[in-house]
Automatic annotation (TrEMBL):
GO terms for cellular component: extracellular region. Pfam families: Thaumatin. Keywords: Disulfide bond, Secreted. It is found in: Secreted. Its main location: secreted. The keyword Disulfide bond applies. Belongs to the thaumatin family. This is Thaumatin-like protein. Disulfide bonds join C65-C273, C113-C123, C128-C134, C181-C263, C186-C246, C194-C209, C213-C222, C223-C233.
Amino acid sequence: MMTHFTTQTQTQTQTHPFSSKFHKKRLFFLPYFQPSFMALYILPILLVLSLSGAEAAVFTLQNKCRNTIWPGILPGSGQIQLMNGGFQLNPGEVVNVTAPKKWSGRFWPRRFCKFDSAGNGQCLTGDCGGKLQCTGAGGAPPATLAEFTLDSPVDYYDVSLVDGYNVRVSIEPLSGTGPTCKPISCLAELNRLCPVGLQVKRNGHVVACKSACLAYNTPEYCCTGAYATPDSCKPTSYSKVFKAVCPTSYSYAYDDPTSTFTCQDGNYLIRFC
């Protein structure tokens, strides 16, 4: 189980470690990206860094889904709020979000949302209190999470299914070094594989998949009570379904060894779908 960054869902607590040094005084060398990628992603990042100072990280959020999503952002305890906690991201759209040194928090996709001109409304999955801008409110599970702790002393990051799944999510370091500094993802369409008892439906179609903890709220599934240690809380038949198709993602609360990755001095591309 991780430390430093703690978040609370409706039924369980997951703790995470996450943080990094950002001395961004070098250009990024990415020989395998096309010039269009360089123009679209890297140049805006360099501009943001030049304006915000060297000790900053840039999260580039890209919507590759066919429909609009509404990313939510929840900072760790004592951390500043980024982008007021949420915004609309249209299909194909890219937004850069700058975070200060030692920031920690999570990003998640909200789907099937409707908001009025004042930013009040509701999302079917990932809703944060009926607001466009979450401003410190967490997302209601199920939702796929991209989690980070920067400069602790390296960046820790993961894709988590502990709160369930609603959208495919990937994290790709755009800079940074380290033996586990590499792209990670959950790109399987888990809604098609979701066990019946975990399904969330809209108009007869599965649009999200609950965690077993959220669906059944038992100590065994939630890693609480007598199951609150790594030795006592083991993978279940449900978490094994998630792990089989998303092997680099957290499938349950103590899934640390194969699910946590680190970079030194990283910037990150977060793709939805």
